[in-house]
TrEMBL record:
Keyword Transferase in annotation: no
Organism: Scylla paramamosain
GO MF annotations, alphabetized: ligand-gated sodium channel activity
Keywords: Ion channel, Ion transport, Membrane, Sodium, Sodium channel, Sodium transport, Transmembrane, Transmembrane helix, Transport
Protein name: Uncharacterized protein
Pfam family, one: ASC
Keyword Nuclease: no
GO cellular component, one term: plasma membrane
Origin superkingdom: Eukaryota
Annotated membrane topology: Multi-pass membrane protein
Entry's localization field: Membrane
Family: Belongs to the amiloride-sensitive sodium channel (TC 1.A.6) family.
Transmembrane portions of the chain: 48-69
């Protein structure tokens, strides 16, 4: 019997499921369904075209299941992000450890005066070489641009000669020399309180790692997933008791170094996220610790929303490693390959490509890339400031002086690149 209102060959029958075979039901579904892949496969089941449509349909269905499973697992694995804030100047993302408390940030202790004066004097390092070391380790802007061209050439030449003499006499590398004139962790830390544990200097320093930065050698307490504060206030957080040696800062001449980059002296504490390399961040953030004064920082929770953020794809650049599962190596050397520090790795790659060397703050122990000596460093700085292209450079520029300094300092050799080894 045909029901009114139904057109076509479809016959209404309340028992049509019971009266049709599986093949009939499949054929009916393929005719009425909008899943064209299934329909094409069924309609061409007796020829090779059916095999083609079967493979296409199965492949796309498997891809759909994979994408759905990946998105679901990624959503379920997401952790709440937080943000540390010291007064109004510190804003650094850190992770939240589940419901057990707020993940505490990492603490970076640096000497903003770069080196210890008593250690410099003990090693017989002159004031001229001290300025040369500060300029080699620090920012490229630390040297005064107002300094005369020939005065700067003399400064480079004399500093480089004395540096090479010290390295040869003491059988040291440049990195060894910087380490020798810097504070060690146990010279800075008296004791610390981590959560409910009170540790002496030796035990506390076992949780620190040394890192090369633009302020020289810094000591980083890298917060782990166990460093979470379950309560509010100053209880059960991180507390460090610091030894501050008075009048141990080298005398830096403002006629050589820019005072805006050397006016801040003393031991500095900087809060960073537990996945950030401190190479550059220590220059712009941190509070100088004063003797006999409690310096505290408050960490607050902020949810980071990154919906809609897009990343420009660069096929020529090797991808950064995901942060998850990475264990920090000595000197935080593998942190330069992680996603939060891609900008540092890009800077290192650029310097290696155009200057065939790297900055002290971006170098790692056992590095295959040589360190830039001061002449190389300023030369690369000039290239970057001129957009890597400069026609008709004046003979009095830093670029022209580079080859002349090397010829005078090393007779018989051309304008080769001379570097202190790591």
């Amino acid at each position: 019997m045909q029901r009114a209102g139904h057109e076509g060959s479809f016959t209404y029958d309340k028992d049509f499921v019971k009266k049709r075979t599986v093949a009939d039901m499949t054929d009916l579904m393929c005719q009425e369904s909008t899943a064209h892949g299934v329909g094409h496969t069924w309609n061409n089941r007796r020829n090779l075209l059916g095999v083609f449509w079967f493979l296409v349909t199965v492949s796309l269905f498997a891809l759909l299941l994979y994408v759905a499973a990946t998105l679901s697992s990624d959503f379920l694995a997401r952790e709440v992000q937080s943000q540390s804030k010291v007064y109004v100047s510190f804003q650094t993302a850190v992770k939240l450890k589940g419901d057990d408390g707020l993940q505490l940030p990492s603490v970076v202790l640096c000497n903003r005066a770069f080196f210890s004066r008593r250690k410099l004097e003990a090693m017989g390092i002159s004031s001229s070489l001290t300025h040369y070391l500060v300029a080699s380790v620090g920012s490229t802007f630390v040297l005064r641009e107002a300094k005369g061209v020939h005065e700067r050439a003399t400064f480079w030449q004399e500093g480089h000669a004395e540096l090479q003499r010290i390295l040869v006499d003491r059988n040291m590398t440049f990195a060894d020399l910087i380490q020798a004139v810097s504070y060690t962790c146990q010279e800075i830390i008296l004791q610390c309180i981590i959560g409910a544990r009170r540790l002496n200097a030796a035990d506390c320093c076992s949780g620190f790692t040394s890192a090369r930065t633009m302020t020289g050698v810094c000591h980083v307490y890298l917060a782990s997933s166990a460093d979470a504060q379950p309560s509010e206030g100053e209880h059960m957080g991180l507390s460090f008791y610091i030894n501050i040696t008075r009048d141990d800062w080298p005398d830096l001449d403002p006629r050589i170094l820019d005072v805006s980059h050397t006016a801040k002296v003393g031991l500095q504490a900087t809060l960073t996220s537990n996945h950030t390399h401190p190479a550059h961040v220590v220059l712009g953030k941190g509070a100088v610790l004063q003797p006999g004064i409690l310096t505290s920082a408050t960490v607050t929770l902020t949810v980071v929303r990154d919906i809609g953020i897009k990343t420009v794809l660069d096929l020529s650049e090797s991808p950064c490693l995901p942060l998850a599962g990475i264990q920090p190596m000595p000197g935080l050397q593998n942190f330069l390959d992680t996603e939060p520090n891609c900008d540092l790795r890009a800077t290192r790659t650029c310097l290696r490509r155009f200057c065939n060397c790297t900055l002290y703050s971006l170098s790692i122990p056992g590095d295959s890339v040589p360190l830039c000596v001061l002449m190389d460093k300023m030369h690369c700085h000039g290239l970057l400031r001129h957009g890597l292209v400069e026609d008709g450079l004046p003979e009095t520029s830093d670029f022209a002086l580079k080859a002349e300094i090397l010829r005078r300092h090393m007779p018989g050799r051309g304008p080769a690149w001379v570097r202190a080894s790591v």
